Amino acid sequence: MTEPTTRLTRANTCILVDSTADMPESLAADPNVRMIPLLVRFGDEIYKDWIDITPPVFYSKLRAAKELPTTSLPSVGEFTDTYRRLKETWPYIFSIHLSSKISGTFDSATVAAEAFEDVTVVDSEICSLGVSLLVERMLLKLEQGVDYAALTEYVEWFKRTRGMLFLLDTLEYIAKGGRIGRAASLAGSLLSIKPILTFTDGLVTPFKKARGEKKALQLIVDTFLEDTKPGSPVIATIGHGDDIEKAEELRRLIEATDREVDMRFIGYVGSVIGTYGGPGSRVLYYIQE
Fold this sequence. Notes:
The chain has 11 helices and 15 strands. The protein is an alpha/beta fold. The protein folds into 2 domains: about 5-40 and about 75-160, Rossmann fold, CATH 3.40.50.10170; about 165-285, Hypothetical Protein Tm841, Chain: A,domain 3. α3 crosses α4.
């Protein structure tokens, strides 16, 4: 177990994420960050998420698919091999993964980590670019140098404090995945219902819904304002389901408020999360430090 006073820096610490972090290129290229992929299967075709299949190709296949693709997590053996390779270079590893309430990835990583010293496995209780935002904040602290206890405390604070709002463009894909009934999907489509989801205790939960996209976007802006306050920067990121124009529209609305918004990156919601969110979805993560 890592001592609380152990000094962590870029020289001795690596951060491992799974592919559902949907990292932007700048973060994926960081020398202190590594990624382990989940698998995406369309029929007999199997792809490593973000390696063998890019989001534009994925969403094109998703739109044409009669059935949703399936996904599978990295095995304990794959995590073990990854940790072993990383430990050849890095004394300390933070292994950060999507919510354990929606995937077994965290559990797989936890079992593998038992064979190694100084590997800290984190259940982010979120997914997608929210994880990327957490990783970026951690890298800034490693740049300055930080005690292990202080870094783990920050991670827990981030998990408690972050805001997250996920706007679905259509109920079609979440219905195909069995998360709602077909009748509810049809009724929602006929009424132009736009559901907004969030994470509560690691679970994806309904937050609010609006009739029409304009009202849904206003709900997101209103909630963003309720959760934040003027006077200090709000660090944010936006993910999108293959629709950059919709992501930019949300960015403009958020940046038009009286908050000092520091938009760190805008990027794709990748294959695994996009399977249920579908094309046109948008997710906003934000934190006020």
